[in-house]
Prior knowledge:
Layout (H helix, E strand, L loop, with lengths): L1 E2 L40 E5 L17 E2 L5 E4 L8 E4 L5 E5 L11 E6 L4 E7 L1 E6 L5 E6 L20 E2 L15 E4 L6 E5 L4 H9 L11 E4 L2 E6 L4 E6 L4 E6 L9 H16 L6 H10 L5 E8 L4 E8 L2 E8 L2 E8 L8 E4 L2 E7 L8 E9 L2
Antiparallel strand pairs: 1-2, 2-24, 3-4, 4-5, 5-6, 7-8, 8-9, 9-10, 11-12, 12-13, 14-15, 15-16, 16-17, 18-19, 19-20, 20-21, 22-23, 23-24
Amino acid sequence: xxxxVRIRLCHARHLVLLLGLATAxxxxxxxxxxxxxxxxxxxxxxxxxxxxxDDQWPWQDRSTMSVTLGGQxxxxxxEHGSGRYxxxxxxxxxxxxxxxxxEGPGESWSEALVSADSEVVLIAFSPPAVLVxxxxxxxxxxxxxxxxxxxxxxxxxxxxxxxxxQRLVGSTRILEDLRGPIVRSCIKSDCQRELLPADDSILxxxxxxxxxxxxxxxxxxxxxAGRFVLxxxxxxxxxxxxxxxxxxxxxxxxIPPRTLTESExxxxxxxxxxxxAEGAPVDTSALKQRLLTEPLPHFGYYGxxxxxxxxxxxxxxxxxxxxxxxxxxxxxLGRLMLDCRRERGGMAIRGxxxxxxxxxDDNPERPYQPHLYRIVDG
Length: 378
């Protein structure tokens, strides 16, 4: 049915996001006039129904999923830190249930998934490790290292010696912002090359434009072979770089500021009522003012990515639905709308496949629901 619808295992203080880039950073700053790609038009989405049993649905809203070029979708099955995963194939059937929590080979307690061509890459934070698996859960590589601060985002190709990273945030519960450079890093070996320094003007601009959540700033980021994108989700601005750190395009959309929906306001009220009952010192007047005036992003950290045609997909919030804006280079092709309410849940995209994690408050048995779509060109 058609629907209209941020590695190297960082040493010391570097966060990693992944990308297949092979050259060093350049410092030139110049944009190009976008050229309308020939015959570029908005693709469609065709949903693949997932054939999950009752015990195979995710228990929590997960910010990370991974999808391969073959359409195999992987998501976390149990509670955070369980180490259990479910992989479904391109028909929606369960391919494997695998993984375990722990500190031994192939084990972890806290992790995030990133997409690859044909494997599953898992970035573990406790203990710190980069783990690579087959889609049926067989361990391919286990690289241990120093603690990782932040979350991974994009991986291009299965050649793990060609990867990309960035560190833009500090540790959880630390209000001080700690920026870091964007680096090209390795997953199976120890290497790093800086592509964009921490004091880069665009990096600072994007960092400061991102609203705080829990004391952290996670600017939107995406990567594909030879280029990467940084975004300002509040102002809906995007900067596309080549593999030398040179700006190719600056673009975006002019749309009205986003405001909280009634359901979002409701959830915030419930959260603060609970905190007040627990004795938290809350200035209710200041809280109300913040809720009504704090700038809200149209799209967030896990909200942008490239498909197999190098089109950039931007996934964000529109009332209680999800929008998908599609760009060819910097040319806006159009918007698809999905009947999907997202909280923290992100997007995974690879080749001709896209996945989203949606929330259904009216379904207590399955409140968090992964959705898999095939990208269809007319």
